[in-house]
Amino acid sequence: MQKNMYFDYFGGDCFAAVTEGDRLVEFHLDPAYALDISGNIYKGRVVNVLEGLQAAFVSFGQAKNGYLAAGDIPCAEGEPARLNVSVGDEVMVQVAKSPIGTKGARLTMNLSFVGKNLIYLPGTPFLGVSRKIADEETRAALMAAAEKLRFAGDGLIMRTKSPHADMRALKAEAKYLRGLYLAALDAYAGANVGDIVHRDADVHVRLLRDFELAELNKIYIGSETVYRRVEAIMKNAGRKNLAVLYDGAREMLDYFGLEKQIGEILSPRVNLGNGAYLVFDKTEALTVIDVNTGKFIGNTDSLEDTVFETNLLAAKEVARQARLRNLGGIAVVDFIDMEKEEHRAAVVEALKEALKEDRAKCNVSETSGLGLVQFTRKKSKDDNTVMLTKPCPYCKGTGTVLSDTYIAFKIKIAIKNCFADGYENAVVELNAGIYSQIVAKRMFTHTLRHSWKGKRVYMIPHRTYHEEYFTVRGDNNDVLTLPDSAQLLY
User: Fold this and answer.
1) Residues β-bridged to residue 9
2) 431-441: per-residue pLDDT in tens?
3) Which end of the chain, N or C, is surrounded by fewer C-beta atoms within 10 Å?
């Protein structure tokens, strides 16, 4: 099955998607304001050396200088740690610990690149195996594999999942991680002090390291900067022509039919395609999923067989939706009651198998006495409903509406479609609060200066408009008749 990735950027936020065939299976919205910088690599400059503490302070583009201990500076094998840097030295440093409160970040010059199965240590000739792997025979086999995988002068640590990966996958991952390092070196060579040369928190880095590159068909990217970064990584990993720079007239996620599927994440109802459907109800403590036959009447005269067929289909879709919605914590599935024990066991097994496709750790319990199936999914960040919505100002927090960023993104799609249809001017009528956010955050500045250069966008704010409501129309007249409230964007 064809598997593609998509990365698009808007107002500093990253919209990332993964498809299998033409179906969306993962979606991630990474906001620009994320505070965690651990794992990121910067070009820094030593600004102070404290011989007594055997430490230095490094300026690396953040509000507070970072702390670099002598033990975090590379030295020759067998030599004791020492402070071999001077004031004014330019250094490549990685954030070992993000700044907290009044404390600056903890930095290291011993770089590491973390993958799904491996940790690559450039310039550190150390081989190791995760302490969580206790079996001595397994540890010995992994050390032998690490010796074969290592690059000269570099090190590797075999992570907890490495025993479950074959040698081909491990080789591909080692090559990919080395590609990240080589791309960081290239970026460092042309960077200024304070520039970031590798962003470990970037969603494209996290997704690519968690997927088998051999399974990917294409990676579509809507940012030239990120495209060049990914292209360099793929080239070093031996996967040329995988990354594609998207510069089409229409918004990328809309062009590939993904924006509509992203919007469906917010719906509590999910149709199964045969007339049956699921209903999702999220509470503070857990997510409840109800399975309904709906209009599905089955293909046999047996009610039990009809219910069993519906539950099997539902089990697969529940697993897909858990991954797509990025559910975390406890989920309880109320499958339709079945009389046969073998059917109940088969449905639970189907759910377990479907959840194996999920990169997050999932555990499934057996059917309870009430006929409910419980499973847990490891929570790594807020689910996508939280990311795509905000508390509703109209119902005082008892519901949600679309976030400002997502509404503005939908407006951008409509404007791009307007220009793609041949119009030179776009007139947008929208909520006054959303308009203020677009202007304050300069959301369309980059697009206006590049792909929309020569076009004109007029915005007419309305205080009475619902936040989610807007209209966009094209106009090719040289002289436009607009109200006094109309504003030429930027």
Assistant:
1) 14
2) 999 999 999 98
3) N
